[in-house]
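Posting this for the archive.
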Amino acid sequence: MKRIETVDQIITHIKQRKSVYLFVSILFLMGIIFGAFLVNSISLTQRHDLFQYLSQFFHEMNNGHIDTTANELFVASIIHYSKYIGLLWILGISMIGLPLIFVLLFMKGIVIGFTVGFLVNQMGAQGFVIAFVSVFPQNIILIPVFIAVGCLSVRFCMRLFKHTFLKGQHEPIFPHFLRYTLIIVCLLALTFIAAFFEAYVAPALLKWTLSLF
């Protein structure tokens, strides 16, 4: 019952703020699309050099010559996601950070789009399969988390602005700040699952996929 109530609360939360969620989701999607098209804007030499580096990485992984352990990758992923979400949280309480929140979300979409687009551009169907097993698993979790954190940061930033500058806004801000922070921490905890997939599951799937080609 508690799980059903939690799901209902999440759905109600999104419905009440659907305009923000819709805008942030579209912005993120535009970043992914832009990143995919960005592949065609780099020179052939740059694409060749990048593909050579990627091919070498795949070769070393397939032969077990990668020095980085799964535990090291797991810790590195957690640190990376913590910094990214922490930065969004800080921007959410800064009032002037609203445009930077949008920039960070758009840039994250570009990274994902460029990664998938480059693999497909250079390797065709094989690249799509590689992208599917190496990028897709963790991003099932990461993309909704990033969008949710972005929306919460935008909402709190706007609330803080209204509380500071608009007359008649006497509602205490601290309870909203505390709830904002606690939800961000809970969302950050979900990135641990994504980091687990990225460190332990995705490399194994990628190695198995490379062995088939």
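Helices lie at 2-16, 18-38, 44-62, 70-92, 98-123, 125-134, 136-165, 174-212. The chain has eight helices and no strands.
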